[in-house]
Write a structure and sequence with these properties.
- The chain is α/β, with parallel strands linked by helices.
- Helices cover 33% and strands 14% of the residues.
- It has five helices and four strands.
- It has helices spanning 14-18, 46-55, 79-87, 94-100, 102-105, and strands spanning 30-34, 59-61, 70-73, 90-92.
- The longest helix has 10 residues, at 46-55.
- The N and C termini lie far apart (33 Å).
Length: 106
């Protein structure tokens, strides 16, 4: 029983997709996503956003700390955005983040 080829556009082997991309745009970075996404990311769920972070080589987190590398602050981002500013963590709008990971959005 030969395995049929995957449909066009399907991800390669499952194990590969889960591994963070070496040298991706967010390689080694801890990323917190907060607030409502806008623009090209508006249709993505929080889980999909977290997957996108991981595919870009980053690690998604739900809380901001001094180890956080980037906070993607969407509409209505409240205390997490304030904490990022207080700690000097880099902030990105959903649009800026979309540009950073554009290659992965296809």
């Amino acid at each position: 029983g030969a395995t049929p080829p995957p449909p066009a556009g399907a991800a390669s082997t499952d194990g590969e997709a889960a591994a963070p991309a070496e040298g991706g745009p967010l390689a080694g970075m801890t990323v917190v996503v907060t607030g409502a996404m806008t623009g090209s990311l508006e249709k993505l769920s929080r889980n999909e956003m977290n997957e996108l972070v991981e595919r870009a080589g980053g690690r998604s987190s739900s809380s901001v700390s001094k180890k956080t590398g980037l906070v993607v602050a969407g509409e209505g981002a409240g205390s997490k955005r304030a904490k990022a500013e207080q700690l000097g963590v880099r902030l990105a709008t959903p649009e800026e983040f979309a540009t950073m990971v554009a290659a992965l959005l296809g």
